[in-house]
Amino acid sequence: MADRGWFDAGAFFAALDSQRAARELMWKNVAEQAKVSQSTLTRLAQGKRPDVDSLAALVDWAGLSADDFVVRVHGKPKGDSVAVISTYLRADQNLTPEAADAMEKVVKATYQVLREA
C-alpha cells in the first residue's frame, strides 16, 4: 500500500476521453481547444502524468476537478480556512493578482487577531 497520495492519470485520461467523445472531437481538436501539445495527450494515453500547467488547461477544458483524481491515503484533510479563502481570491477573475494578494493579507491579519480573541 502506498504511503502517500498520488494522481490517477489513467482515470483522468478516461474522463478526458469521455468528454472528447461526447463532443465528437479528435484528440487533435482537444489539444487545440485546451491549448496543450498533442504530445501531452499522447503521454497521458500512455499512463504518464501531465505537467501542472497542462493539467490545469485540461481540467478547465473538460470542466473537471483535478481533486477528483487524487487518490488519498490519509483521507481528505480538512482545509485551512485562510488557505481556502486565498484559493478563491486567487481564482476570482474580477481581481488582479495584486488585489488578491492584498485581500489575502487582510484576511490573514484579521484571522490571526480574531483567533486569539
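The record above closes out task 2.4. Task 2.5 opens with a second protein, given below.
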Amino acid sequence: MRTIAIIRRILTELLRDKRTLALMFAAPLLILTLLYFLFQGAGNTSADLAVQSVDDDLVSAMQVDGLHIHKIPERQTTDQSSNYTERIIRDNDYAGFLCQNDGSLHLTLAGADEAQSGLILQSLKAAQAELSGKAASATIASQAAALTQLESTVAALTSRL
C-alpha cells in the first residue's frame, strides 16, 4: 500500500511541474527537428569536377549523383603548372581539377567547400577500388584459364607414358 502511495505522489508531482513536462515532450521534438534540418542539408551536395587526359574507364566509374564531370581539352604544351590548374578552377567555378600525367593522377581541390571536396574524394576512391577489383577479377580469370590449359597439357603428357 505504501509503495502505491509513493508512486501516485511522484506522478502527480511530475504532472504538476511544467518544466519537467516541457523537457519530456518539447525538448526531444526540438532536438529531432534540428537534427532533421542538419542531415537534410548534407544530402544535396553537388560538385563540378574538371578532368583532363584521364582514362575514360575511371571517368565513367566516377559517375555518382551530385558529381558533374566536365572534360577539358588537352593543352598543346605538356606543362601542367599550378597556375593553369588554378585558373581553370577559378574561371569555371569548379570544385576540383583531375589530370593524368605519365600514368599518375593529380587532383587539385578548390577547398572552398568541404562537402564538395569530400564528394570528389569519395567518388575517386570508389572508382579506383572498382577498377582495381575488375582488374583483379580479369587477372584471376586469365590465370584460371592458363591453369586449365596446363592441366590438360599435363594430362595429355601423362597419358602417353
